[in-house]
């Protein structure tokens, strides 16, 4: 039994399948994870070690060389790139494409466990597996207000705790706060008089500030856990800590030879919004999270939290859900427009019933596509939504062919069921061949390798799923509806007055004239083809894999000379901020966000006193008066002659996957 016959003879089953797809599609559309860009595994593991106050040369010798020696024999490593900066070591390990990153992650961790001779004062190595979700935060929250550093740190910590509890938030990072520190400032004269050394003070503090487990002990039928509680509870305990006894047996306490103060660490990153001190909180989501839902929860939490703290300003920046919402809105508008246009055009040619059947194929195919995307773990992101918009015009083609052939058989006098079976069977294989031809044109993208291949593979997958869904609808669902719900009999007189017959007559006349002057027609086609080839050969049509566009944010990266203090770097950025505020183009800026001491490099971030980053958040595109390039050109002219600035760079926002620079020049050597 053929597919069309099965469809016509089992109308109830077909309707049940349609209803199941309808409800399952709505469920999948709601539950499917939504994100800004598809998940991409970069094939990179980053190792970061902090060692404050140490020069780059010592960082290389004492940390980087030892780590490189251990990880150099890990299998499938393509490249190891290390960067030594003041107080920080960064090792970037790139692996060959197509390997098992879970195994690579375990291998790197195994080798890092063997590195046991790093300096004691250095922080423990931090390993990070790079992927799209680790690199791209879903939003930044800027917290500001007239508060002292201790208060703003407490507020930021409380916000971080609350944001971490939001469903599907994976991590929250805070920049711009200063951690609490207890400073011991030694009095050398008193230490010399008492014979106490810095090592004595350090040893006493370290040995005292401990909670040591002591095992367990049994008394009769009861068992007690024993531990010594030695950690300091307040600053008075630290001040009164005995360091040693003098010759008369009196205790020399810490406060006798040092000044103990409860303060904050020195600033490593300064955060500002519109020139005012602030704290920046970056939020990342889990893989299964829906960016739209997560951002709704984040906005609700921020609004509620701001109401609990007087004079607190909380601003959400770089909201990734806006792009996803815009793409969803664009898909809905295009789908609705497609349904209306298909219905209007087919009504003119085939009647309103047949037009309705064809138009229904669009939402049905999309709902079935959502079900299959949910099943195959394909997220709804900007690229998959673009694929759905692109395929929108294709998914009704096979249904129109089936309906037109059914209509032809009805005009020949066949009954609805006969016309549905015969019309569909006649063009079934050509329709399948046409869909498979379109599928084949997208399949090569699926076999692209590397980071670009991982990013692009979602595009052909969604297109193929949508085309298969439309083929399923046109060959299985549509014949049953045509047989049961279409007009029982056509009126030959009415059909002859149909616009279709009018256009067919005009088309025949046009074809006849072209055939009479076939050589002229062939010549015109050859000339047009030649002109097209010349346009490509002489590069009259520019090629760019992913086009540049007016950005929602202009990012300016700054560097002052190596060794510049964070206060001096801040002074340079303040001068730039003041200039930006006086620019004519400042009306196009919704906010100016500055982070002094922040260092970003290929998805990683760290602290460096001679680095800074200024982000210019733009207003809506339709309200802007100036082009991005005009703003950048004016800033370049100003920055070229600015004293105290070593270098600057604009980060260009591009659509698509993360890629390297257009041109990279690497210089190798032992002593550079």
What percentage of amino acids are in beta strands?
15-25%
Structural class: alpha+beta
Overall mean pLDDT: 83
Task: Classify the oligomer.
Answer: single chain
- What gyration radius follows from the Cα positions, in whole Å? 34 Å
Major sheet: size, sense and barrel closure?
Answer: 9 strands, antiparallel
Tally the helices: what do you get? 23
| Cα shape | elongated
Q: Which bin fits the share of residues in helices?
A: 40-55%
Distance between the termini: 77 Å
The residue ranges in which pLDDT falls below 50 over 5 or more consecutive positions are none
Q: Let me know the number of strands.
A: 19
What does it look like?
It is a single chain. By secondary structure, the chain is of the alpha+beta class. Helices cover 50% and strands 21% of the residues. It contains 23 helices and 19 strands. Strands 5, 6, 13, 14, 15, 16, 17, 18 and 19 form a nine-stranded antiparallel beta sheet that branches. A four-stranded antiparallel beta sheet has the order 2-3-1-4. The chain is elongated.
Summarize the structure.
With 672 residues, the protein is of the alpha+beta class. 50% of the residues lie in helices and 21% in strands.
Produce the secondary structure layout.
Layout: H1 3-9, H2 11-31, E1 41-50, H3 56-71, E2 77-85, E3 88-95, H4 101-113, E4 126-131, H5 132-135, E5 139-144, H6 149-164, E6 169-175, E7 180-186, H7 188-194, H8 198-208, E8 211-219, E9 222-229, H9 235-239, E10 242-245, E11 251-253, H10 254-257, E12 258-264, E13 270-273, E14 276-285, H11 291-308, E15 313-317, H12 321-350, H13 352-375, H14 382-391, H15 397-411, H16 416-446, H17 450-456, H18 458-485, H19 492-496, H20 499-516, H21 518-537, E16 553-559, H22 566-582, E17 589-601, E18 604-618, H23 628-639, E19 647-651
Antiparallel strand pairs: 1-3, 1-4, 2-3, 5-14, 5-15, 6-14, 7-12, 8-9, 10-11, 13-14, 13-17, 16-18, 16-19, 17-18
Helix pairs in contact: 1-16, 1-18, 2-13, 2-18, 12-13, 12-14, 13-15, 13-18, 14-18, 15-16, 15-18, 16-18
């Amino acid at each position: 039994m053929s597919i069309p016959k099965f469809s016509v003879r089992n109308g109830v089953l077909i309707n049940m399948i349609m209803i199941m797809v309808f409800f399952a599609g709505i469920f999948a559309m709601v539950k499917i994870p939504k994100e800004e860009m598809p998940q991409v595994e970069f094939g990179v593991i980053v190792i970061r070690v902090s060692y404050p106050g140490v020069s780059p040369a010592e960082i290389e010798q004492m940390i980087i060389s030892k780590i490189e020696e251990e990880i150099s024999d890990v299998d499938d490593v393509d490249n190891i790139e290390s960067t030594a900066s003041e107080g920080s070591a960064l090792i970037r390990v790139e692996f060959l494409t197509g390997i098992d990153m879970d195994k690579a992650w375990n291998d790197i961790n195994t080798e890092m466990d063997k590195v046991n001779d790093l300096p004691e004062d250095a922080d423990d190595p931090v390993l990070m597996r790079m992927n799209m979700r680790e690199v791209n935060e879903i939003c930044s929250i800027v917290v500001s207000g007239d508060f002292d550093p201790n208060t703003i740190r407490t507020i930021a910590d409380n916000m971080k705790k609350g944001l971490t509890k939001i469903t599907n938030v994976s991590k929250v990072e805070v920049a711009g706060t200063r951690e609490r520190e207890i400073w011991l400032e030694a009095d050398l004269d008193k230490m010399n008089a008492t014979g106490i050394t810095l090592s004595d003070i350090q040893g006493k503090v370290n040995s005292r500030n401990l909670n040591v487990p002591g095992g367990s002990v049994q008394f009769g039928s009861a068992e007690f856990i024993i531990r010594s509680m030695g950690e300091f509870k307040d600053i008075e305990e630290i001040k009164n800590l005995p360091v040693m006894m003098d010759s008369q047996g009196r205790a020399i306490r810490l406060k006798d030879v040092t000044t103990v103060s409860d303060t904050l660490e020195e600033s490593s990153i300064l955060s500002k919004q519109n020139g005012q001190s602030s704290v920046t909180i970056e939020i990342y989501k889990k893989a299964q999270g829906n960016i739209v839902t997560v951002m709704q929860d984040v906005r609700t939490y921020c609004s509620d939290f701001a109401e609990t703290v007087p004079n607190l300003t909380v601003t959400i920046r770089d909201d990734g859900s806006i792009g996803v919402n815009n793409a969803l809105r664009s898909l809905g508008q295009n789908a609705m427009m497609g349904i209306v246009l298909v219905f209007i055009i087919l009504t003119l040619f085939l009647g309103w019933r047949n037009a309705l059947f064809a138009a229904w194929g669009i939402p049905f195919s999309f709902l079935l596509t959502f079900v299959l995307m949910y099943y195959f773990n394909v997220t709804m992101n900007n690229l998959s939504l673009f694929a759905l918009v692109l395929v929108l015009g294709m998914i009704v083609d096979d249904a129109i062919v089936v309906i037109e052939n059914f209509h032809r058989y009805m005009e020949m006098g066949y009954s609805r069921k006969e016309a549905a079976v015969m019309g569909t069977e006649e063009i079934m294989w050509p329709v399948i061949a046409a869909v498979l031809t379109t599928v084949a044109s997208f399949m090569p993208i699926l076999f692209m390798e590397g980071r670009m291949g991982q990013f692009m593979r979602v595009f052909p997958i969604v297109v193929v799923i949508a085309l298969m869904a439309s083929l399923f609808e046109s060959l299985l669902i549509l014949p049953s509806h045509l047989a049961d719900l279409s007009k029982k009999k056509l009126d030959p007189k009415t059909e002859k007055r149909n616009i279709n017959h009018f256009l067919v007559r005009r088309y025949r006349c046009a074809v006849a004239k072209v055939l009479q002057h076939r050589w002229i027609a062939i010549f015109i086609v050859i000339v047009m083809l030649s002109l097209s080839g010349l346009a490509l050969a002489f590069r009259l049509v520019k090629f760019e894999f992913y086009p540049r566009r007016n950005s929602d944010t202009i990012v300016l990266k700054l560097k002052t000379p190596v060794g510049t203090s964070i206060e001096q770097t801040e002074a340079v950025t303040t001068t730039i901020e003041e200039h930006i505020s006086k620019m004519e183009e400042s009306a196009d800026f919704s906010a100016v966000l500055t982070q002094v001491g922040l260092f970003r490099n290929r998805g990683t971030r760290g602290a460096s006193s001679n680095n800074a980053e200024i982000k210019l958040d733009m207003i809506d595109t339709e309200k802007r008066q100036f082009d991005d390039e005009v703003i950048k050109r004016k800033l370049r002219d100003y920055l070229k002659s600015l004293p105290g600035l070593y270098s600057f760079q604009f980060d260009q926002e591009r659509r698509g996957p993360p890629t390297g620079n257009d041109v990279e020049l690497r210089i190798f050597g032992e002593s550079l």
